[in-house]
Amino acid sequence: MIPCECSMVESVGENVIALKEGDLVIPTYLGECGECENCRSGKTNLCLEHPLTLNGLMLDGTSRMSIRGQRLYHLFSCSTWAGYMVVNANYLVKIDSRIALSEASFLSCGFSTGYGAAWKEAKVEKGSSVAVLGLGAVGLGVCMVKEYDMYIEFKMLQT
């Protein structure tokens, strides 16, 4: 999953059971059903049930947004630059409500990009040496991989 920004749920549709008004969520442009072969594999998050769409529409081919009667399109599947967004619940990750919105936003795009890059793409493993250039959200995400394997040597370089 590749998150974008932290938001608060304002309302939910009738079939949504895992979220409620007031929940803090991070929208993602990769949805997860948690049940398909890909979601269960632990190796990919390209869900077979909730795919990445690049047409700017919801999975059912519609848009839930308009302005002055003209259809608006979603950016990927979550439209995180909009003041309000309508998104399928499978494209949201609920986070702890005790986290302040300003701090939760830190968990979104930058942190998860660094964490995912080190864990899933670079496949950092025991005995690896890793140079981290900068300790912003991306750099700190890379460093958190160390929490799961204390044998990784990190060199943190603040630029």
UniProtKB/TrEMBL annotation:
Alphabetized InterPro entries for the sequence: ADH-like_N, GroES-like_sf
PANTHER family, alphabetized: ALCOHOL DEHYDROGENASE, ALCOHOL DEHYDROGENASE-RELATED
Organism: Vitis vinifera
The protein's name: Alcohol dehydrogenase-like N-terminal domain-containing protein
One Pfam family this sequence matches: ADH_N
Residues annotated as domain Alcohol dehydrogenase-like N-terminal: 8-96
Subunit structure of this chain's protein: Homodimer.
Domain of life: Eukaryota
SUPFAM superfamilies: GroES-like
Cofactor: Zn(2+)
The UniProt record lists the keyword Signal: no
Entry keywords, A to Z: Metal-binding, Zinc
